[in-house]
Amino acid sequence: MLIHRVIPCLLLSPSRGGLVKTTRFAKPKYVGDPINAVKIFNEKEVDELTVLDIDATREGRGPDFGAIEELASECFMPLCYGGGIRTAEDAFRLFSLGVEKVALQSAALRNPSLIREIADRAGEQAVVVSIDVKRGWTGRSQLYSYSGVAAGADWRAAIRAAVEHGAGEILLNAVDRDGTLAGPDLALIREASQIADVPLIAIGGISSLGDVKAATDAGASAVAAGAFFVFHGPHRAVLITYPRYEELRGLWSSAA
Amino acid sequence: MDVTIIDCGIGNIKSVQRMFEAADGEAEIVNRPEQLAGARRLVLPGVGAFDAGMSALGEGWIEPLRDLALERKIPVLGICLGMQLLCRRSEEGELPGLGWIEADVRQIDTGGEAGLKLPHMGWAVVNPTGPNPLIPTDEGEQRFYHVHRYRAVCDRDENVLATADYGRPFTTAVHHENIFGVQFHPEKSHRFGLALMRRFLSLPC
Fold first, then answer.
1. CB distance B117–A197 less than 8 Å?
2. Beta strand extents in chain A (DSSP E only)
3. Domains and their CATH numbers in chain B
């Protein structure tokens, strides 16, 4: 039986003093201290953890290596970091601090050969390329970019280019679902997983274990979520949770 | 020092050191072959390509490692690419491996099952083939984090320590006398990895 990975995705915003959760990539709400959250997720034995610094690129700075090393030292599971990585040296420094994977976005869109440069030394499995997709009012989907690089471009071509240049994984973000708990964009996942012949991590809209199952049924190799793991109840009280292993295993064993 | 971790630029060694420390072991990282003298237990971590790994070991590491592993017979643990380097050769590269385990490294065979992409990335239940010093047979399900495109294929069943499944069963841990190799990442496998590190630390040296 295959056990798909279920990955909490934490958004780091140093300018707001810690972790935040966004809605459709806007309206960041403070949700707590990063180290504390990582410790809790470690105790809950999460499959993997993704931490994205959403300020770095916008502020034109690189990763906060000191803070990341502190986070990594609390992770006895794989850790993926993204945000402000501009050069292969940035990535290698992150690996030396105990990060397993780097997530690239703006830098990879600007210069796809960066993916290969990192993958050649650290292996393709260490390079995740993050593809954000937003639907317009007509429902047509296009590449969304926080930093403006390649915004509006064809996301399908962006996935193909990333895999061709050596990405070991694609993090597919449905921007319109971010923080909404409205369920995953299954049509998007279905199409993207056909295009990417490397593992696809789907993120955006997950609100239940049923959503997790629906996303993997649609072709995602793994599912990531933010709000689902940090909010509780209709008033969005901050509460860090993660399903028990037996619950997750039950999702996929029943389908076999 | 309880454990000496080899850093020849091919792995995320910091996480390995942290897990040994969490298991109450003293672990040193060495980045020059001459620092191997006096090692009591050896860990060969590694990620990346097979030839890149063997080229890195070719920078003066192979002879001192051979002496420790095959003559002095101290406990050795290869992790991920480190395990593959213990084998004779790999489909992924041209260079010969260390050849301490009678096995070849081949690409994963998923049996064509739909939806199983490579690399295999994620947790898998690991089933020991029998009682062994590293993975318990009587403490419930053991699961470990895997990231790989290749796996060891042993000549003889006696060198297979454990198997896992990705479409089809594959060998995920190998052993021969004092030499052990695991395809998965114990340093990233929560309490299961911690327990494996503890067991490796308790191997007589």
1. yes
2. 5-13, 18-23, 26-32, 49-53, 79-82, 101-104, 127-135, 141-143, 169-174, 200-203, 222-225, 231-232, 237-238
3. 3-201 (3.40.50.880)
